[in-house]
Predict the structure.
Amino acid sequence: MSDTEVQDAGFDDWLDAAADDEAYSLECPEGHHSLPPRRVCPDCGATTLEEVPLPETGEIETFTVTHVPTPAFEDDAPYATAIASFGSVRVTGQVVDTDLETVETGLSVELEVTVSETTGERVLGLAPASGD
Ligand SMILES: [Zn+2]
């Protein structure tokens, strides 16, 4: 599907922005937030979406630790995948730059674009926020 290519491109651009500490969410006139790639607000269907900066730090809401990964990520295991809330949006990413034992709900994290040791592709990471 050509839709997939468009979505990949959109997310790649967003990774570029995140790598430059310029991550953003998309806000519709009703105040709903979503992440690229989006053309329509997933909550109300509004098509006027504005880029607004994401908060610098988010908070881990839930996470899972993977000890036996799929082959595509075998060199990265074990690793934790977390869902963190950044203001009004939720971001899913691999927890990086910390010991797995320290990963917990409520942990303050920052976005960090990292490269998978297995695939060499860029992935979205969540690193513990500095200054804690
Ligand atoms: Zn909306």
The beta strands are 24-27, 33-34, 50-53, 57-66, 79-86, 89-95, 108-115, 122-128.
